[in-house]
Amino acid sequence: MSGFPGGLGVVILLTAIAGSLWIIFDIVIALLFYCIALLLTIIYHLRYLTALDRWLQIPVPTSTALPEGSGAWGDVFARLARLMRNQSQSHQQLSLALERLRRATSAMPEGVVILDETDRIEWCNPVAEQHFGIDSNRDVGRLITFLVRQPQFAEYLTTHNYSEPLTVKQTRHQELVLSLQLVPYGDKQKLLISRDITRLEAVEIMRRDFVANVSHELRTPLTVIGGFFETLSEENGISSDMSKRALSLMSDQTKRMQRLVEDLLTLSRLENTQNQVLEKSVNVSDVLHELYQEAQSLSAGRHHINLNLETDMKLLGSPDELRSAFSNLVSNAIRYTADGGEVTLSWRNQNGQGVFTVQDNGIGIDQAHIPRLEERFYRVDLSRSRETGGTGLGLAIVKHILNRHQAHLEITSEIGKGSSFSAWFPEKRSVIQQND
C-alpha cells in the first residue's frame, strides 16, 4: 500500500486502531476490524486503478476525460491533468512549428524529398511532386529509384559521393532538365533537392553551339591565312628584318589561334551529352610509349624524360580521349619545367584503380591557384602561358575527359619544387590481362 500517496499513513492509522481494540476487547475483534478495514482500503484503490486503466485505454487520452478522485487519488489525477495540459500545449506548439516548416518548404522553388536510410520516400513538397511525378499520399514508402529511373541517378545514390549535383533529363515531363543534389542529415536520412534548370541548360546548349559554330567557321580562314604566312616567310625576296619578324610573329599567332580553335571544338564535343564514350579496351602502356616519344621530341633534349610502367593494366574507355588527356598533362609538364629539369610519366595499379601520373621538378604552382586550374582560360602566369603557347583550355579538356570516364584529377605542387598531376580511374574501368 505504501506505493500510493498516503497509503503508509492509512496502514499506520489502521494498525493503531486495531491495537487499541485488542487492548480494550480481544484479539479476534481487533483482527476482524483490521481485515475489514484493509479490504475496504484495497477496494478503494482498485476502484481508482480501474478508472485510471480505462482512461489510459482511450485512443487519445485528454485531461478532461480524467476520472475524479478523492484523497491521495485526487492529487494523482490533478498532477496527471497538469501533465496532459503541458503536453497538449507542447504538441500544439510542435504542430504549429511543423506546419510552418511545411508551408515554408512547400513555398520553395526547389523540390524537396525526404528519404530514409533505404532511399524510400518519407515526405515531399509540391514542387518535387511536379518534378518526379510523385503523389505524396500514394508514393510514401516507395523507393525513389522507382520514380527516377535514370541509371546515372541510381549510381549517384550507391556511390555516396554527393559533393557535386547530378543533371538528369525527365523525358516524361516535356524534356524537363533537373539538377539533383543529395544532402545526408540526421539518422542516415537524406534530403533530395531538385532544381529546374531547363532554361539554363537551353542557354548552355546555345552557348556551346555558338562556340562550336564560330570555331568551325574560323578554322578554314585561319588555315588559309597561316598557309600564306608560311609561304611568305619562305620567300627569298623579303630582305627587311622587320618584315621577316612581322611575318614570323603573325605566323606564330595564327598557329596559336588555330590551336585555340581546335581546343574549343574539342571542348564542345566533350560537353555534348549526346556524344557518348565509345567503350574500348585501351592498352595504356602502348599509349604511354607513344607519348614518351612525343615528349622527347617536344623537349628536344632539354629535359630528362622518364617512363615508369608498374602494371600492364588496361582501361575501358575512349582511346582518342584518353590519349588527349594524357598528352595535355605531359605537354604542360614539359612547358613549365626549365631546361635540365626532369619529367616522369608513370602508370600503376593502386588497389584496383588505375593511376596515371605526370611528375616534374619545374616551377611549381602556388596552393591558392590549384582549385581553379581546371577552369577555362584560367592562367597562373599570363605572360608565361603566352610564351609557352598554351591556350588555357588544356586542363579543362582533361577534366571533361576524366569526368566522362568517372575518373578524377589530383594535383599537388610546391613552388620551386615541381608539380604532380594524377588521373585516378575507378576499378570498374580497369581491365587486367585482357586479350584484345
What does this structure look like?
- With 436 residues, the protein is of the alpha+beta class.
- The chain folds into four domains: 7-102; 108-196, PAS domain (Beta-Lactamase), CATH 3.30.450.20; 202-271, Helix Hairpins (Orthogonal Bundle), CATH 1.10.287; 280-431, Histidine kinase-like ATPase, C-terminal domain (Heat Shock Protein 90).
- Helix content is 50%, strand content 18%.
- It has eleven helices and 13 strands.
- The protein has a five-stranded antiparallel sheet with strand order 2-1-5-4-3, with helices on both faces. Strands 7-9-10-12-11 form a five-stranded mixed sheet, with helices on one face. Strands 6-8-13 form a three-stranded antiparallel sheet.
- Helix 1 (7-24) runs antiparallel to helix 2 (27-56) and helix 6 runs antiparallel to helix 7.
- The radius of gyration is 40 Å and the shape is elongated.
- The N and C termini lie far apart (89 Å).
- Residues 1-5 have low confidence and may be disordered.
CATH-level-4 superfamily name of the largest domain: Histidine kinase-like ATPase, C-terminal domain
Q: End-to-end distance, in Å?
A: 89 Å
**Radius of gyration, in angstroms, nearest whole number:** 40 Å
How many E strands? 13
How does the overall form come out from the CA principal axes?
elongated
Order of helices and strands: HHHEEHHEEEHHEHEEHEEHHEEE
Q: What is the number of independent domains?
A: 4
Number of helices: 11
CATH class designation of the largest domain? Alpha Beta
